[in-house]
Specification:
Belongs to the glycosyltransferase 87 family. It is built from 18 helices and no strands. By secondary structure, the protein is mostly helical.
């Protein structure tokens, strides 16, 4: 792509960054109180975290899973009465340990602190892996970062856990597993990495993962009792029903299943097609790890497969896509770009911010298509490297 050069690789991210944040601040500051110019709560999903924390301070851990009680708490904080199930609590009680202290300060202060702390963790975990200043620019300006901040979500925490685990996976697999086990706060994001560890017989990492997960479960029971776990398990069928029915917005999701549902494919068939794609992606990524492919390719593939395999992951989870794109881009930069790789990287870089509006208008969900294209590009690069290695030998 001739219109892409080093100067534009710096300029384009900055331009998108400035436009996105200027628009966001204009909308935010045109509202009143905790409401922005569109009538939405500032911080969006964060109101759910803050309300749950407030209920914990009242000693009502199990009530967090009671949708009516949670919405009543949200309305009392925001002075709004139009909340829906999107603000319900579907996390395991482990996450209650992480958000317990949020309501110790005011809502906006808590939102700011939550964002600063989780972004700092995200940035520092990436600093362990990124090689130069240009990589930091791409990271900070990545639209997935924007989506996570404006949604008031925990994508930075998930990305920190996964990338930190990858940092240790070859050198200290038990430590890597201990870190990955923290993802039990959002267990659907640990599913693909767990299967890949199992397929590659990385028992040290698996034992670390089991230890930290079990520890968090025990600590949550000691802190809140057994009742929240029973309530959590009872909410799972409701969460699936709301997601499959479209009550939770498909256009903001990342999965093939959501893409099929948007196209009008029957739910059970959409689920089966998703499972087939997810298992194919997991099998391919496990092969890369078994064959000891270079770190950049297999780490990128693991992150992409994690995002692709989750049935109902959202745009804010794409914060973890940034290191995958940077690793893959650095690998291509080092050994030479193919004719299409730059195009894929550019489309993937902007997909967190363009996929939702396009899906809303056309019912075509770009994110899973782009994730699949990235895996195909990784496969092609891996095959090319294997062929070069065989010629040299």
């Amino acid at each position: 792509m001739k219109f892409i050069n080093n100067e534009r690789l710096i300029a384009y991210p900055i331009i998108i960054f400035v436009i996105s944040w200027a628009t966001y601040f204009a909308v935010t500051f045109s509202g009143t109180g905790l409401t922005d110019g569109f009538g939405k709560t500032i911080g969006a999903d964060f109101i759910c975290f803050y309300s749950a924390s407030s209920m914990l301070r009242d000693g009502a851990a199990a009530d967090v899973y009671d949708i009516e009680k949670l919405m009543t708490k949200e309305a009392s904080i925001t002075k709004k009465e139009d909340y829906d199930f999107a603000s319900a609590w579907f996390y395991p009680p482990i996450y209650l340990l992480f958000i317990k202290k949020l309501a110790s300060v005011s809502y906006l202060h808590a939102l700011l602190l939550f964002t600063l702390v989780t972004f700092s963790m995200y940035f520092l975990s990436m600093a362990l892996l990124l090689p130069n200043r240009l990589s930091y620019l791409w990271l900070v300006t990545f639209p997935g970062v924007f989506q996570n901040i404006t949604n008031g979500q925990n994508g930075f925490l998930s990305a920190t856990i996964l990338t930190s685990s990858l940092y240790f996976i070859d050198k200290k697999p038990f430590i890597a597993g201990l870190i990955l086990g923290i993802m039990s706060y959002k267990p659907h994001l640990a599913f693909a990495p767990f299967l890949i560890l199992l397929a590659t017989k990385n028992y040290k990492a698996l034992s670390g993962c089991a230890l930290s997960s079990a520890t968090l479960v025990i600590v949550s029971i000691l802190s809140f009792g057994f009742a929240p776990w029973g309530s959590f398990l009872r909410t799972l069928p409701l969460a699936d029903t709301l997601a499959m029915s479209g009550f939770l917005p498909w256009y903001k999701m990342n999965s093939p299943q959501a893409g099929f549902l948007l196209l009008g494919i029957p739910p059970e068939l959409a689920r089966l097609l998703h499972i087939a794609i997810a298992l194919g992606a997991i099998a391919f990524t496990a092969m890369l790890w078994r064959q000891k492919a270079n770190f950049n390719l297999r780490a990128s593939a693991l992150i992409i497969t994690t995002l692709l395999s989750v049935p109902f992951g959202y745009d804010y989870d794409l914060a973890m896509l940034a290191p995958a794109l940077i690793w893959f881009g650095l690998e291509a930069w080092k050994s030479g770009w193919s004719t299409y790789e730059k195009s894929i990287i550019i489309v993937a870089w902007i997909v967190p911010i363009v996929s939702p509006p396009i899906a809303l208008g056309t019912h075509i969900l770009l994110t899973p298509l782009v994730l699949i294209m990235l895996l195909v590009a990784i496969r092609n690069r891996y095959k090319s490297e294997q062929q070069e290695a065989s010629l040299v030998s």
